[in-house]
Amino acid sequence: MTDARADFLAAAGAAEALLRRTEVAEGWARPSALAQWSVGGLAGHLAYQVLCVPEVLAAPVPVEETVGLLEHYRRSRWVGAGVEAEINVRIRQGSEALGASGPAALSRRVSGTLAGLPAVLAGEDGRRPVRLPFWGAWSLTLDDLLATRTMELAVHADDLAVSVGAPTPELPPGTAESVIGLLTRPAVRRHGRVSVPRALSRAERAPGSIAAF
User: Fold this and answer.
1) What is the distance between the alpha carbons of residues 126 and 47, in angstroms, rounded to a whole number?
2) Cα–Cα distance measured from residue 83 to residue 92, given in angstroms and rounded to the nearest whole number
3) Is the pTM of this model over 0.85?
């Protein structure tokens, strides 16, 4: 199994455990730490990062061009878009729809999906092109898709945990390093090859932000 698949499964397992926490169920209808997201909607978005994988694998192999990760993020309409942008409204609505089933049903669905994923992923070529339907006219390799889902799982697990006062799940060191490495690449493209190292090494000269997106 490739590192991308192992990292994804580790992050997915941490997210699945978070979704089962009492704090998440009790806060389901409350606003989350993210503007215009409920806790239930944020939980739905976190769950989607796991649920989407068997869906894209069941779809026909796409014919659109396959691009790298940096190009994927350059093309993604949500990057830099405001909370009221059409793409972000669509993402919120889809996530709220997933969360509408309630905490118990959603966590069971994620647990059931996750139970079968190691065997499914073990039989797949990491270079196989896949795509999510709302991206646009391009594809990623399976391993690159899993890298993007691992990052989403790590970031949104933290969002959800903070929203309900639960501990943020800790990822295995290698998985955490993969997420940090992925976030660093678009951060460098956005802020430059001087600002990012400066922010990490010289607090007195650090820029106000080195956010990747």
Assistant:
1) 22
2) 9
3) yes
